[in-house]
Write a structure and sequence with these properties.
Layout (H helix, E strand, L loop, with lengths): L2 H19 L2 H4 L12 H7 L4 E5 L15 H10 L4 E5 L9 H8 L6 E4 L5 H10 L3 E5 L5 H13 L3 E6 L14 E5 L1 E2 L4 E2 L2 H6 L8 E5 L5 H10 L3 E4 L1 H4 L4 H12 L1
Length: about 260
């Protein structure tokens, strides 16, 4: 069993536990459930080159990125230094994230927040809405075509935007009308190795009627410039910033180099 299989199996059990711990009827009464979302896809256009800066403490590929990181402090840095949006990992078992990371960041951010999670159930989408997320991630590799369709439709009913993540062009057959953004993950989720030029190579096979972003492994202005010229609208970058002593400054310097 590879790491992705382990994560998904654990996530299915975790969601069933959470359903019993916090009922759906409670989620829909929370403070942020009725707030109007901020469009991530529009922000990518308005804040070129469309950097979605990620907050995460660890990952299966790197056990200690920044375990003591404060979500409010770092996401404020991202906002102040030119990010188009913020991605926040909420998986705890493998990434040391938590739903409260979004709750705490939401009070201080005007930027759209993407809930980065291994979503397998509509319950997690209700959670995303209730904690103040504006968009959710659906990973094509872990969902069937019908599952992805149903989850994306449910998210749109809640007025959340949907980012569908693919790694191979064959996963595009799961694309539905309810997907707002297609993200090409440069990281192989089975091996957790990343090559930023994977997006460059797969681009000709992507549709042109959605926002397109490149995710993972990006660490230089040169890579962003190449991918923008290729046609990508945005870039999800995490470890490059989170490994820095000053993530905000690192983001600002990267944007200055991109121009």
């Amino acid at each position: 069993m590879n790491i992705l299989d382990k994560i998904v199996r654990h996530k299915i059990n975790e969601v069933e536990y959470r359903k019993n711990f916090i009922k759906e009827s409670e989620l829909v009464t929370r403070l942020f459930y009725e707030r109007d979302i901020v469009s991530l896809s529009e922000s990518l256009t308005e804040n070129a080159p469309g950097i979605i800066a990620e907050f995460k403490r660890k990952s299966p590929s790197k056990e200690n990125i920044n375990l003591k990181a404060n979500p409010v402090k770092i996401t404020n840095m991202y906002q102040e230094n030119g990010a188009a949006g913020v991605s926040i990992l909420t998986d705890h078992s493998f990434f040391e994230g938590h739903e409260k990371d979004i709750l705490e960041a939401r009070n201080n951010l005007k930027l759209p927040i993407l809930r980065k999670e291994f979503i397998v159930d509509t319950y997690q989408i209700l959670e995303a809405k209730s904690i103040g997320a504006d968009a959710i991630l659906l990973i094509a590799q872990i969902l069937s075509k019908s599952e992805l369709k149903d989850l994306a439709k449910f998210a749109k009913e809640l007025k959340l935007e949907v980012l569908m993540e693919i790694h191979s062009s064959s996963q595009l057959e799961k694309l539905t009308d309810d997907v707002d953004i297609i993200g090409v993950n440069n990281r192989d989720l089975e091996k957790f190795t990343a090559d930023p030029m994977h997006s460059f190579n797969i681009y000709p096979e992507l549709p042109t009627d959605r926002k397109l972003i490149s995710e993972s492994g990006i660490s230089s202005a040169e890579e962003i410039i190449k991918l923008r010229e290729r046609g990508f609208d945005g870039f999800l970058i995490g470890e490059y910033f989170m490994n820095s002593d000053d993530p905000g400054k690192t983001l600002k310097e990267l944007l200055e180099k991109v121009g």
